Amino acid sequence: MIQAYYLLIILIIAVDQASKYFVSSLMLPGRTIPLINNVFHITFVRNTGAAFGIFPGNTNLLIAVGLIAALFILYTMHYIPKNKYYYKIGLSLILAGSIGNIIDRLYRGYVVDMLDFRLFPVFNVADAMINIGMVILIAGFLLWRRD
Fold it and tell me: Structure pTM?
């Protein structure tokens, strides 16, 4: 039986890849479409680096780091007790985001970013899941470490 965590991972990867496919198919790089003017836009950015565009052009290194992280997370998830579901959810989100961006780097040579809130760099669904997963893990460590 497939655990719900793996279904969550597959769902997130599917949503991430679908959003990247539609943006890259329907828009030219650099094009922006305001959904809420000056608040939220869909902006097609080709990111050859890591978060916030750091380490641009290091695709092979970023693929290697992403694969190592993904394998480590998969290994770790098998040793987390069942009652620590929030750790598994956090790790699942991070894993799904990592895989989503690895797929981009392998398939395109860059990551498609499109969510543009105008306050910080443009990002994608995978990036959002990685960050949400980290918040859940940190909250788990700080708030629920006794259970």
Answer: 0.91
